[in-house]
Amino acid sequence: MARRGTLRIYLGAAPGVGKTYAMLSEAHRRAERGTDIVVGLVETYDRPRTEALLRGLEAVPRRPAPSQGTGRGEMDTEAVLRRAPAVVCVDELAHTNAPGSRHDKRWRDIDSLLDAGIDVISTVNIQHLESLADVVTAITGVRQRETVPDAVVRRADQIELVDMTPEALRRRMAHGNIYAPDKVDAALSHYFRPGNLTALRELALLWTADRVDAYLQRYRTEQGIRSTWYARERIVVALTGGPEGSTLIRRAARMAAKSSGGEILAVHVSRAARLTAVSPRELASQRTLVEQLGGTFHHVIGDDIPSALLDFARGVNANQIVLGSSRRKTWQHALGPGVGSSVARDSGPDLDVHIVTHDEVARGRGLPSARGARLGRSRTLAGWLIGLAGPPLLTVLLAAPPQPLAGFASDVLLFLSMTVLAALTGGFYPGLVSAALATVLLDYFFTEPLHHWGVGSGHDVITVVLFFAIALAVAWVVDLSAQRTQQAARLRAESETLTVLAGSVLRGEDTLRALLGRARETFGMECAALLERDHDGGRWRCVGSVSAVADNPRPLLRPQDADVDVPVGEHTMLVLSGRVLPAEDRRVLSAFAAHAATILDRQRLLTEAARAHKLAEGNRMRTALLAAVSHDLRTPLAAIKASVSSLRSDDVEWSEEDRAGLLESIEDGADRLDQLVGNLLDMSRLHTGTVRPLIRRTALDEVVLRALGGVAPDVVTLDIPESLPWVAADPGLLERSVANVVENAVKYRPAHTRVLVRGSALGNQVELRVVDRGPGVPDADKGRIFEPFQRHGDIPRGNGVGLGLAVARGFTEAMGGTLDAEDTPGGGMTMVLTLPADTPDAVPGSRPSEQGEQGGEHAPGARGR
């Protein structure tokens, strides 16, 4: 099998931090070491220092841009593959290729190079990660046009953060090292504000820290390292289900807040070794509190609570454990050390244990614990000690000279008490041995004739036989009780697990990944997956998988690869790896498997429901179209028919002025029909998803002039500066959108007032504002006016079917823009149409010529050409 190339990514928080510079510096270092390295594509944006670094490096010529393109060309992937270097530098991982390229996205080109065994060095900004697109939009107000799936970046073999403080980046900007001097002020006052840069920097640092943590976890697992490494603060909170849990959680949250990036992991251990008092309501409220504070809740099963806690803490690489002071009463401490003492004793130097006081200290537990659930090693040893040493010691005490201390009946009762004590302490076998040993000693030392093996009296024979039978029965009953209590504890642990599983459904935690993670965690496995196939003998495919190690290099793809497999139906199977589970655990695991299959079916049903909802929306749209046609199309048709009939009538002699008026009425009616039918067809295309905009560089002023062709020139004031940047839009769709918005403003304007159409640039966006002085729209109705078949106020029927603004917003959003309504200062309504600018740096400036170079770094939100 051919070797796959390695991917190294330089990650930055914003344009200009030095990603490309770092990549080219690395290229020079490798070239000096004799590595065969070439430049597949690098964008310099006319930055002198970056251009200087390109000198001395072999560059593969770009593929010429298509005729409708605006850039200097895309990377020639085929040429790079033919050249077959050892390493290639490819800038801007998230870039969208021009139409006609081998792939639509540059990261797919990089995948092709990696598959060919070529190592790749690339760059990307944090705002281009798919999972952070909404977060970046909320921070900067700029919607991201180019994104790359997180999985592509996570698969990188190396990720290096190129960091720079906001102050230093703004100084670079002010010195002209990033953008041209005429664009610096606009950039500094919009996207490159200190707050924006600080937030983006924090996102980059946190995301990189998560990736470093994943690499660390994988390394620790591969090397079998169990000790804690202090990479970051991870605090495990031990919850018993008692009322003190909320106090412990809040204390842990304060500890985590003192260190940036601290994590809280609350864990509840279901103990199979004894029945303990747990309040499901308390545990549920504590789980909610943990999640509200940004932590996670975990539920595990363990026979020994201290060992289970320490194993969990070391498994997640925690460095602190928070426990509550014991709720046991003073006399209960004589029964052995509590959980807190045991954890502190066995934690070692790598775990700090915090014992937190609370209001429930020394108040006791809600229910007494049953001690006989499972006989531990120390208790069994104590039982054997009593069973073997107790009868001889009792014999020495009772037979000591000068004469026995008690009669034969008392001796029998004392030996029986010793046997019962051995059975109660150690179970059946210590009790059995004690009974046998006591019987022999009673026969030899206390039954006539003394010091002879044998029983002389019939009454003594009955006494000895009954003694042995009673001792044996007591030992058997004690052992049976221990078994029954152990079974009860086991069933309780299972029911608690199933309760948590059912509770997750009620809380809406119905994602397949969450369920698989809970199953893996509950049974202490390394990996859990749900496999599915289409038919018997078909190939298994993984529909969901979780692992204790992020980016598990060995996922479960077949039942043969797993240690445990549970079938769900005929063609679905839940599989886990890590260890072989006992048979009794499979019953609970089957519940997890059934629930996983239910979640999978539910997800598919939701998909089908969404598809059905879309069809229903289409049917609703068609019904509304028919309702609209019934009147709004009939009115202009009736006017046209009346005018035509009048012209054709021979009973009336029409003057030239009257004839012109009737013809004008016919023309107006035809125009209205054309507009209505056009809007109806456009709305239908939007709802069926058939609108496919052809995005290209567009001059906004030219499109607006064409859109105003049907509007009287004395009702519109146009204010669009010639220096306005180009926009990335479909000219046809943009013209229809502007025309509908302007027509709506003209319809609602007061008489003798004009509608203002003004264009302006804001960062890497261009805004077109259509301002009227009409009655305006209340805030509650601003969203409704963009819905189909909505007319505001008392506009009579026949003035449109209420589709103009709906079509305008649909076309604008299809082009990647926005259309919103705002109040006009002093009264009226302002429609704001926003589109991405299409300039070299997405910064306002003079409009570049058609023939000039159009390459440039895509600032956040700019659309790739």
TrEMBL record:
Gene3D superfamilies: 1.10.287.130, Backbone structure of the membrane domain of e. Coli histidine kinase receptor kdpd (1.20.120.620), Histidine kinase-like ATPase, C-terminal domain (3.30.565.10), HUPs (3.40.50.620), P-loop containing nucleotide triphosphate hydrolases (3.40.50.300). It is a multi-pass membrane protein. It holds the Pfam family HisKA. Residues 628-839 form the Histidine kinase domain. It catalyses: ATP + protein L-histidine = ADP + protein N-phospho-L-histidine. Keywords: ATP-binding, Kinase, Membrane, Nucleotide-binding, Phosphoprotein, Transferase, Transmembrane, Transmembrane helix, Two-component regulatory system. Its EC number is 2.7.13.3. One of its GO terms (molecular function) is ATP binding. It is found in: Cell membrane; Membrane. This is histidine kinase.
